[in-house]
Design a protein that fits this description.
With 120 residues, this protein is an all-beta fold. 0% of the residues lie in helices and 62% in strands. The protein is built from no helices and eleven strands. Strands 2, 4, 5, 6, 9, 10 and 11 form a seven-stranded mixed beta sheet that branches. A four-stranded antiparallel beta sheet has the order 1-3-8-7, with no helix packed on it.
Length: 120
């Protein structure tokens, strides 16, 4: 089994910054990609950013230039640096880990999420 835990959320003023962290642990053989998603109340889940095992990054259009995804492969961690935050960025941010383990083929693992609230 693979466990995924996010941290770093909180309350921030519009225009401010937050850095989210996500760590994967357990019976991991190889992590293929790590990504961030978010979901605001009453809205569908939205993809934010992704980083592959090769280091390629991709962002949703609304996050380009403001958010940066990075990783530390040795620690099975991924980060999301969020700058110039807006009230519409308020959401629960969840970490997705696509990985193979010693007990299963490739599948997605999810953390429980961390709340980000941006005030006006």
């Amino acid at each position: 089994q693979v466990q995924v835990v996010e941290s770093g959320g909180g309350l921030v003023q519009a225009g401010g910054s937050l850095r989210l962290s996500c760590v994967a642990s357990g019976s991991i053989y190889r992590i293929e990609s790590m990504a961030w998603y978010r979901q605001a109340p009453g809205k569908q889940r939205e993809w934010v950013a992704l980083i592959t095992s090769a280091g390629t990054t991709n962002y949703a259009d609304s996050m380009k230039g403001r958010f940066t995804i990075s990783r530390d492969n040795a620690k099975n961690m991924v980060y999301l640096q969020m700058n110039s935050l807006k009230p519409e960025d308020t959401a629960v941010y969840s970490c997705n880990v696509r990985a193979t383990s010693f007990l299963s083929a490739m599948r997605d693992y999810w953390g429980q999420g961390t709340q980000v609230t941006v005030s006006s």
